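[scheduler] slot 2 assigned
[scheduler] job type: sequence-to-structure, two independent chains
[scheduler] chain ordering preserved from manifest
[runner] begin chain α
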Amino acid sequence: MTNPIKDIEKSDAILIIGSNTTENHPVLSSYVKRAKTFKGTKLLVIDPRRVPIVRHADLWLRLKPGTDVACINGMMHVILDERLYDEEYVRSRTTGFDMLKKVMERYTPEYVEGITGIPKEQLVEAARIYGKAGAASILYAMGITQHTTGTDNVKSLANLAMLCGNVGIEGGGVNPLRGQNNVQGACDMGALPNVYTGYQKVTDDSVRAHMERAWGVDKLPKDAGLPVTDMMQKALEGEVKALYVIGENPMVSDPDLTHAKKCLENLDFLIVQDIFMTETAQMADVVLPSASFAEKDGTFTNTERKVQRVRKALHPPGEAKEDGEIIRELSERMGYPMKYDNAESIMREISEVTPSYCGINYDRLEREEIHWPCTGTDHPGTPCLHMDRFTCGLGVFHAIEYAPPAEVPDEEYPLYLTTGRVLYQFHTRSMTMKSDGLNVLAPECFVEISVQDAEQYQINEGDAIKVVSRRGEIEARAKISNQAFTGTVFIPFHYADAAANTLTHAALDPVSRIPEYKVCAVKIERA
């Protein structure tokens, strides 16, 4: 997030797009509801479903799945046409405006209505609410990123925020809501194929030399590694022989699970390190039992870039060990000793090799929580990014054209499928399925379908229905709901026995390599 969570309550307008905020981020959603209730903040929601946060919205734009770029471009067209943008901010702090303005000319409300299904009057109203706000915050989640155009979606939101001067101000910003508790921290620590810690590129000679000195090694690789989605395909092709999976369950969470299973089965060697025997662990040659978050010391970095201490409350059961300890022991047996006395010594190394963390240490974290970048031990941290200037100097507008999803409905598969989460289960249920109470509240998979589609297909509430895509089929119970969009069905991806990702396809964003979980074509029938 460019802004801290508390800034949400300072916003004059909040735009939520691609986020079922109350179910996926229930704590953060309370800030949105307080801003709306006590400050009178205007709330815009853009989503194909009537997600629960819509109850609090001043305006809900219901768009066809996968048409986010056209919608955002349409809002910018109106803002430009009515001169609602921040001319001084654009002139002094950005570049690429002329090209953006030229491309936006054809995204008239009428043109955008034809693509998205959003009535032109509603699009104009949304643009005016956002454009006239003194400070407007954008909140988005995986409904924006999990598309073949996910990178374009994010860049379009950055365009909109910069156009109205909403980056680098309190109550503004472009704020991604992370899907798990330490996703931000994992990325910060280099759990990506093309960077070291702090997003330092592996292709940068000076960065690589610095890391070689810090680790006492020669000739670190000069090339980026493989994204996880490419690893799976390379496994199928025989180029990747072994896979080490830590805290992930691709046999439920990967797209096109039939394909994912073939990829894993083609490996010579599969290691899984996890706290429970997941569906993926059941396929492994070796399972390494690891400790849960409450059984180890360390830090988490949350969605607002805040670094916080995590303290050990329990000893790991049985032969389970902390993830770091397992990795250190493996490394030593493979010929490279990792000499860390404890989690604090690892944090010391992090601050030495990571410019954005160089002012963060355990002494400070005992007293305070710190937002990176923190560039010295006397630096207070940076809750709000880009206050005076962008990291790269000028903010760059990207003039982006709308492109349709990789797969859209046709005569054979006439419905959109979109996937997501529910409040009472989490990710692949490796943890929440152990809770009897949660299983009472959300016991099984369902297919959310609109009243109109239920009538057309002669489906009643609770009927067993079959959902079929070009990749596979599942059966689940019908849930007739006014949250659903006519022509679109929604399935939560948590349930392995009716895995939604049996249906989704593995088309990838060309830049981020994220799969398009949020859009594919299906057909339904009574089971």
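[runner] end chain α
[runner] begin chain β
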Amino acid sequence: MMKKTRLLSLTVLLLLTALLLPLSVQAQSDTPLDAPLLTITRQPENYAGREGETARLFVSATGDDLTYQWQLSDDGGRNWRNSSVKTAAYAVTLTPKHDGRQLRCIVTDRYGATQITRSATLRVGNLIITRQPENCRVIAETELYELGVEAVGDSLRYQWQLSDDKGTTWRNSSVKSSAYTAYVDKSSGRYARCVITDRYGHQAISQPACMLRSKLAVTRQPVSYSGQVGDTATFHLEAVGDGALHYEWQYKPDPASKADWQPLLDADDSDTCTVTLTSENNGLVLRCVISDELPDYPTVSVCSDWVRLSASSIVITRQPQDAKGRGGSSLHFSVEAQGEGLQYQWEYGDKPEPDGYWHAADYRTKDAYYYLPVTITNPASACCYLRCVITDRYGAQVISDVACAKATFYLTNRLTPVYRPEGTTVRFEIGVVGRGLTYQWQLSDDKGTTWRNSSVKTSTYITTLTQKNNGRYVRCVVTNDYGDSLTTSPASMNIQDILFTAQPVNYTGPSGSMATFQVKAALRPSLFGNWVNYQWQLSDDQGAHWRNSSIKATKYAVTLSEKNDGRWVRCVITDAYGNSATSDPASMKIV
């Protein structure tokens, strides 16, 4: 009997649930399907003003029969309380207690749906900074750092200050406006802030902002690719920056096209991009935009050079070969290739790397078989590298192997002028590559107009510098076993002395006075504007030991104190050619 009663109760409960469920669903779905969605279209904004002003905040929204409830918070938004304002506009006369207060509005429609606005902050005071300067970064030297500050107050004056020790010490700049601009030079890493003063003498100091020159740069550019349809083209670049680097590969039909660059959808965020060459993408150009993300700084970006993706039917059947020859001989290089409408452009460079800097040779031909005469005369290096760029009628290109044009007789260095004190031993030496070499040094006392042979027949010429050979020119004629000759450029030998025209003088004075020491020097003869370097040195043991000071000018000045009482000073002068001279010492003494 008990089991039947329980079964009956369960059946009745299920029936009641089935009857009441539609009513429950209906109660939760009172909002019509065609009712407008409650949406906030205007948010309240921060307001800054002086005591006694009226702050006005507004909110706008779309929906049916909207109601408004403004709320207040005086603890940074942790707790909120309802205000008496129930309209879309909120107005209040500012007093000191409103400074820092936050406001927001709860908007409700006729169906009970609600939306809460963002919070807005009130600032009250005679002088308030409303916009702080922000950290900035630039890349190119021609760009300007731009910092700005905004404030409210009476008759505001601005003074920007700079710091090179991350804000430990500050100095005034010459900028006295609300905006600070500076070119990229030594200011990278410098901090700037603005001191704002109103007519009553009240001051506010902005937060500091850092000006940073970004290290973002492409250190290795991608290279164009030509291959067969179906091949996989790989484009690679290298870049450096301050923070995390991101890569976006882009393409367009042609570099001259006015079409915008489009992102290459299948490319990864990587410094390497692979593309399968098809008839559809034949001729496309690609580039990479590299972005540098550094916390607390704006993101900067640079673009790589553009490169071309092209399908080629060119097949090189004979590569250029290395060749050697004596100075003045003519070396020949050739290349053979198969393809349609081939054109050939030979290039030369001083390095064999494919992505190095290559110069186009003057001679150009459209013949399938090509010779390039190369004359080797006193090359700057042992090898001149050559290659050939072959282009077909469709614009596809292939580049031949690199060949080396090497001379067997050449100079490896140049003679340079010598400037030394009288009586110094001077030395001229040359380097030559060749076979069976002989040397003949020649001299000239009329600045190279006429020459005579000396008795020196080795690779080195050594002599003592005197008044007799002051200004003399020397050169060397080198001959190999084939009878070919090379003549070096001439170089002169010159007397160059440092003469003190004023020595430092001992100083005696009271503690706290300024002790000043000065030297003057002249060169003989006067060359290159009498250019010299000055290094003042100090000694606290009457000249037994000396140490360098930070002063590198003609004058040394210091405040006389117990610490430097009895100290000696002197100056070491060095000219442009490494000759040095030391002044007499002088002392400082307290009386």
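[runner] end chain β
[qc] chain β: The chain has six domains: 39-124, 128-213, 221-311, 315-408, 411-495, 497-590.
[scheduler] slot 2 released
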